[in-house]
Amino acid sequence: MASVPDLERRLAVSGHLARLEESRSVPGSWTLYVDGTPQSHVELDKPEWLGFEYVRRIGHAVDLVRPQHEPITAVHLGGGALTLPRYVAATRPGSRQQVVELESELVDLVREHLPLPRGAQVRVRHGDAREVLAKLPSGLDGVVDVVVVDIFSGARTPAHVTSTEFYSLMAPRLAPGGIVAVNVADGAGLAFARSQAATLAHVYRHVAIAADPTMLKGRRFGNVVMYASHDELPFAGLPRRLASDPAPAKLVDGDELRRFIAGAPVVTDATAIPSPPPARAVFLAKPGA
Fold first, then answer.
1. Residue 154, by phi and psi: left (phi above 0), alpha (psi -120 to 50) or beta?
2. Domains in the chain, ordered, with CATH?
3. What is the pLDDT of residues 29-78, one digit of tens each?
4. What is the pTM of this model?
5. Low-confidence ranges of the chain (pLDDT < 50)
6. What DSSP element (H or E) covers 20?
7. In angstroms, rounded to a whole number, what is the distance separating the alpha carbons of residues 122 and 255?
8. In angstroms, rounded to a whole number, what is the distance separating the alpha carbons of residues 6 and 60?
């Protein structure tokens, strides 16, 4: 096993410390921590296994956006340990994928110790997600099946990637039936999550969210996965998938989603704020140990 310094990298842009940690009990099971926050989980020998509950919920959108095994075009805003690009490559061979990651040192660390599967068609672009998104080649207009938005600096999502102006940048990239999947972290009251749902609903005709019932009641810090599309979401089978996950979740859409939003403000560049910080105790239990 590599020495500890080899598994750590100081990130130039944020100054955070990125660290890869292998499970003591399950060889090949790795977790990426950034500033002490668990951000990605990778099973090197089982890329089709998604360990983090919110990543599984995004994976369901990947599964349902097109017929099984059909290649897709995917854009991932936020790279982490490249968990979802591995998943797409394993479950939909031949897919074309673009990853946008701000921290070059993070990409280097992950590629050195957790290389992508052979044959994976994944291009990594370095830079700020919003800036790179605006400059992606015109050949991606109208052909992207899934855009994954999972952008964090440490444990918080920066303000400039939470607004209508930001979400509007990806709208022309979507293929018919394409889906935007957003990981939103929030705590008690869910004010940030409600405003993000309102913002997505301002840009896209169809929006739904998924989270565990306790989280939806605003009783604890956690993740809410949001789905948005110009077209009706292909989610007839999603409630069953969510209910059968190791950490069961509920799909909220239609009138229930409108009640969840309940007048929450639409976020613009002028009003955007970062996501709320979690208490450090939230991450004391290390996944994959």
1. left
2. 53-271 (3.40.50.150)
3. 999 999 888 999 999 999 999 999 999 999 999 999 999 999 999 999 99
4. 0.93
5. 282-289
6. strand 17-22
7. 38
8. 34
